[in-house]
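Batch 3, record 17
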Amino acid sequence: MYTQPYPEGGQGQAQASSSAAANSLLVADCGAVFTKVSLFGLVEGQYRLLARGEAPTTLTPPNEDLTVGIIQAITIIEFITGRRFVSDKRVLTPEQDSGDGVDVFIATVSAGGPLRLVVLGGVSATLENLVSQAISGLYAEAQFLPAPAFSAASSGASPAPVAAGGRPSSPGQGAPWTPERIAMEWDRQLGRVRELNPHVSLIVGMADAPGGPNSLQEACQLLVKATRNRNERQGAGASAGIPPQDNVARQIPVLYAGAPQYVEAVKRMVQGVSEVTRVDSLTSPAQVGAISIAAGTMHDRHVLRKLPGYNQLQSWSATAPIATATSLSSLVRFLAQHYTMNVTALDVGGATTTVMQAGEQGDFIPMVNVGLGVGPGAGAILQRVGWQRIARWLPFAIREEEIRQFVANMLLHPYEVPSASRELQLSHAFAREAIILTTEAAKKNSGKWSEADLILATGGVLAHAPKYGQVAMMLLDALQPRGVTSLVLDKTMLISQLGAVAAVAPITAVQVNENDAVTHRLGTCVIPYGELQPGQLAVRVGVEYSNGRQQTVDVMAGSVEVIPLRLNEQALLTLFPAPTVDVGLGAGERARAAEEIDGGLVGLIIDARGRPLVLPTDQAERQARLLQWSQALGA
Amino acid sequence: MAHSPDWPVVSQTVLQRERWPGYLRGYRQVTSLVRPGQEVLPDQPIIRLERETMAGPTRAAPVTLPAGLRGRVVDVTHRGGVVIESYGALLQGALGAGRQVAGVLTIWQEPARASSPPVIPPGALLVVPGPLNFSLLRQAQRSGVAGIIASSIALSDLEGFLRTDFIQLLETPDVELAQSRLPDLTLLLTEGLGTITMPTAGSNFLNRYRGSIALLSGITSQRYHIVPELIISFPAQQQRDPSQILPSDLMLTLGAQVRVCAGEYIGFIGLIDYFFVYEQVFPSGIHARALRIRREDGSFIKVPVTHVKRIG
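Prediction for the assembled complex:
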């Protein structure tokens, strides 16, 4: 709902007919840290993943060219397959009789950082929420700077020099809106715009809102002044060697979603300084989609197209590269409708964490948390949650300095692989917090959240985890699902690319998804909740295997158990919860599955630790519990 | 064969840098003393800084900034910075802090080895081949050293000296403003955090240019992908020969000298002995593409490909 499938430049369906008969496809996903390339081809009439390669993303000096990393990853595929896909720094298309080359090349991109959006004018709390919803599925971050006239008027006072109001972040909160305070606020906002270095501004506010047209006028004045200041500082990055793509253009384009009768006045005020694009006036959730599309287009224009190597990348294919999150959202919605179930997908990357939930009724909640991840994004996590929240997930004692050192190293050496056990556990702890923060943001933003029937996980930290039990543990700890759900790991890291593939070659996308992407089923999970009494029975689980064998397991509150049910095995499940415990049908209500449940690489997981999950406060006890739970899952 | 993600030393290159003092407290008025097309010398003053109060420029003597580079002025920016194109050598560090400064490269001699107590010349760029510590930093600052080039430092010492959260500093949006709040001593660490010594190639590189005027920037930004750098312009008599300017060889090939820059073997140096065809398993259980390094003592270590940096 909040994302535009293919913003400006994306080809979508136009490609479908020409690519219908593609025998082979190369799909590149350029992440902030690593670039992944996958080769799809026909095997016995079905599209399959044939090989994949991974190499560091090459956006930064000395390469400063996205295509260098892609070619390095393709080189690995060439080594594996013995085929040649690149010649003279170009992807060979179409596939030749010798087997060299591919018919279709597609790229998705999450590198390059977010679109920085500054929201000006009559920015009420309601509009803040609507803008946040509009950009929640995009690589974008918004900062809100309400006009002083709006702040003064919405506090119940007339504009300066008058009394009170203002936002908590404003200086002199509670002080009257005197000319001095307005001047201070003006300076603060100029400083903020300078610091934020926005790609785009969004001006909002209706004529009948507090501050009225004055808010819009002040927004324009701020923009004009900030642009002039910025142009005076042009070149500020040169002494430090800031790459040109990070030195934004001399203009800050305006998306105007304010009162329609003032659009011409706004154009006049910012004439020569900013180009104005009018979008639907933002007043209610009905306009969120339009704002989302406009912001997506701006991301494409001001971030993706500015990436070094973009033009070369685009020349390899008739399909323009698209944002990875846009691709993922297409797939998640498809899966929810195809399987008629609630699907929660999460992608934990080095610099971005994404959580998306799609329902069978078409409802969709995306949350792209830019700057938060287990690579360069680990610093933001530490800053947000503090070191103790990282340490709580570790089954050993650790000091703040070690965690800070770990984070600093992740920032300085983002390509580092956690080769030591301690580093791996630290990186898994950060992954948990990244998922928690992103899920919390999604719930807050959307105001609703459903229990998932299927949890689909991808991203380097999860896909590369040495044990499936470790992935299951991270998902259960961080997402804290309730009732009955299934966990699937996309170990091939394909799902983020398949949405883009589907637009060009839908059959390929469906077949690769079923054959290779969602094949690592970790297992079905039963998560009883309610009032679990420590040490008491939480739920009795009856399992009737397909071969007729039966097993009954009593699971105590506070524990995690795995009942053997391997991949390709099925069983009928009966749950007898304790009187105060719920497994999805109400406290104490017995549940019997109408259909057999599937096994998985971990097994049938019963997580009776309670919801919300509360870790023991005593350090020794907490560490012992963490070890015990990990061992239960084979982690 | 693989590619190293880093680029520590470029022995010959043509580059353009804006000479700019950063935000200096009390100095507002920046005036360029040169014009585009003009040739400049490393010690030539090219920018004048004047104090400015609310009432306007004061009568205090202005300060001038030397070019730090030999080369041609290609632009004067809006703010008064001077963009110089220069031909020289470049050393990039793993991390650093502090604004751009120019000074004479001076090699630090440990007191025990020096015949007399070490004299740290004010305004110098001091090269410390080993790890830094808090007390050495304070001593250098008191002596008026402009910058230090060293191998590594403990995070606690670095943050103690800078009096800032270094992780936040790496991610700050306004890079130059953040530098202006740091102590007046620019740092470049070639290896990064910890107690890692400088590889011989690095210290040889710096020794070769001792006594030269160099331009040092400590600015490190994860957000903008900026790494600290030291630039030494070549003398005028060393004519530029474009055919000699070769791109830095980033390829990790058999026999290449590499340094491990992450993980349990951080700081180890050796030659690439073997590339594993298949992904290898490491103590954490993780699988990764790997190579084997033969160390100087003849021992072998196995490390992920992404953990090594080519140094020779």
